[in-house]
């Protein structure tokens, strides 16, 4: 069992998603009687957050918990994470769960990885679609060959994000919001590749325009021959997180849970002769947090293939998204 939990960034991600996931952890992974500490660099004060004991700095957190065995959830937006990570590492914190994406560009990624290496930090990226039951089921279908060879993947992520988008100062483009989830899953399912094309669109509401934060799409050519198309629309009136895969011998369509309000996924598999439809529990975020705590509790700070793979996949996500942004900027030089 770890000694404690510290949430850095008490906004939507930290207080709205990570904190409830901590409450769902089994007692063998985290003592439910132990308080959760919180520090919000953006606020810089002791603003109250329900269920969290707020501290003013990493130094104060280190006096309340054993920093070497505390799991620190870095939930602040990706800009400036390397500086915050360095401050935490200087106070002795070594175990981190870091929200997606790791950074908004290659420079930020390299700065973060330098700190990880210099302080020998243990990092588990918060890439819940890699812990998703739906992703796991699709991966097994691909590896089994039951539908033949995988030809293409198509992801569609739609939801209304006007309120947050109009005040968002931290996510520079729509590529940084939803697409890191699906791109990570695509790399897990089809392997590495390169961006072929990409574009973005503005968010428009009530006469206000937020450049590049309304929509985004990209295509990826995987080294094994698979093609992936990802579309994200943050101005849609409906919610949907959908994946469609074409094989030489059939198709499958899956729906990831649309929000934290319901943790069920669906999967339809069609081999041309019969069509199967399954509905199943898929608390991917809770599973990702549990995986991280299980790793920290049992590995004792030792590296593992699973953790190395997650960090590598998420680093590739940042690099590919940086390529996609450059491609989108070339398509529309004035944006």
From TrEMBL:
Domain of life from the UniProt record: Bacteria
SUPFAM superfamilies on file: NAD(P)-binding Rossmann-fold domains
Species of the source: Actinoplanes siamensis
InterPro entries assigned to the protein according to its UniProt record, in alphabetical order: NAD(P)-bd_dom_sf
Name this polypeptide is given: Oxidoreductase
């Amino acid at each position: 069992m770890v000694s404690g939990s510290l949430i850095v960034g008490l906004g939507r991600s930290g207080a709205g998603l990570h904190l409830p996931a901590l409450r769902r952890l089994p007692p063998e992974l985290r003592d439910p009687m132990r308080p959760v500490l919180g520090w919000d660099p953006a606020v810089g004060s002791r603003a109250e957050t329900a269920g969290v004991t707020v501290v003013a700095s990493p130094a104060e957190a280190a006096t309340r918990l054993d920093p070497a065995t505390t799991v620190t959830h870095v939930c602040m937006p990706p800009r400036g994470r390397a500086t915050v990570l360095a401050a935490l590492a200087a106070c002795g914190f070594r175990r981190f769960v870091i929200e997606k994406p790791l950074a908004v560009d290659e420079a930020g990624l390299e700065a973060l990885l330098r700190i990880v290496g210099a302080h020998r930090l243990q990092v588990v990226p918060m890439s819940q679609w890699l812990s998703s039951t739906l992703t796991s089921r699709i991966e097994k279908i691909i590896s089994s060959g039951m539908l033949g060879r995988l030809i293409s993947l198509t992801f569609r992520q739609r939801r209304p994000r006007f309120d947050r988008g109009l005040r968002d100062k931290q996510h520079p483009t729509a590529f940084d919001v939803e697409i890191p989830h699906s791109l990570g899953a695509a790399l897990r399912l089809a392997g590495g590749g390169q961006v072929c094309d990409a574009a973005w669109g503005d968010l428009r509401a009530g006469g206000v325009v937020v450049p590049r934060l309304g929509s985004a799409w990209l295509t990826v050519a995987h080294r094994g021959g698979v093609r992936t198309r990802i579309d994200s629309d943050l101005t849609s009136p409906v919610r949907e997180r959908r994946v469609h895969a074409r094989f030489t011998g059939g198709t499958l369509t899956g729906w990831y849970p649309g929000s934290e309000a319901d943790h069920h996924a669906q999967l339809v598999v069609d081999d041309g002769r019969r069509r199967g439809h399954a509905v199943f529990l898929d608390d991917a975020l809770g599973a990702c947090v549990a995986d991280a705590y299980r790793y920290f509790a049992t590995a004792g700070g030792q590296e593992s293939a699973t953790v190395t793979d997650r960090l590598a996949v998420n680093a590739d996500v940042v690099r590919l998204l940086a390529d996609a942004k450059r491609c989108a900027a070339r398509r529309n030089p004035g944006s």
